Amino acid sequence: MNIRENLESALRSIPGKVQLIAVSKKQNHETIMEAYSAGQRLFGENKVQELVAKASSLPSDIQWHFIGHLQTNKVKFIVPFIHMIQSIDSLKLLGEVDKEAGKINRVISCLLQLHIATEESKFGLDLQEAFQILGSAEYKAMKHIRILGLMGMATFTEDKTLVRQEFGSLRDSFIKIRTVFFENDNEFCELSMGMTGDYDLAIEQGSTMVRIGTAIFGVRTQPG
Ligand SMILES: *Cc1c(COP(=O)(O)O)cnc(C)c1O
Q: What's 34's domain CATH number?
């Protein structure tokens, strides 16, 4: 396992304008530092406790992306340093991020997570719920968050037609939301989709940000 080589080959396989988030969940500090030494600065984590421990002991110029289900009572632990929260799946969560960010005068970049997979276990909003959030007075009053785009996970399957369809539907939702709520706002520009097994299809469907763990760090010892 040569992390530098894996990173270089992942970077070669994606267009230059697509950002690569190295998903470092369940990887130890030494492993993450190998990727860091190879030049990687964007990392993704899905557990608050694990992320807080890593962020406090790893270099401060790492840009941490939160990509897992986030409980409102844990928002305060990541708000001081998080670069982007990709997994906003309720108005309540967004409100909590806004409140905590306000206390320390930060503005936190967020993505709305949309549910596109056929699997029920995956979190996320449907398009109608996203419209409700963006149309709400509560959202419009928030000063300490900014929504930069959407995130989604496709079904875990070999069926490329299905995965392509799911990524295509996320791209369509992105365009609808941009047209209705962000017409004169170029900040709404990120479409985070694609993991090790499906990032080629995601890029084909317009991804601007891929989240890759296994292809960089190898197979994780525990699932999740
Ligand atoms: C684990 C995870 C990834 C990366 O998965 P790989 O298959 O290891 O590339 C991407 N996105 C989310 C939300 C994840 O939880």
A: 3.20.20.10
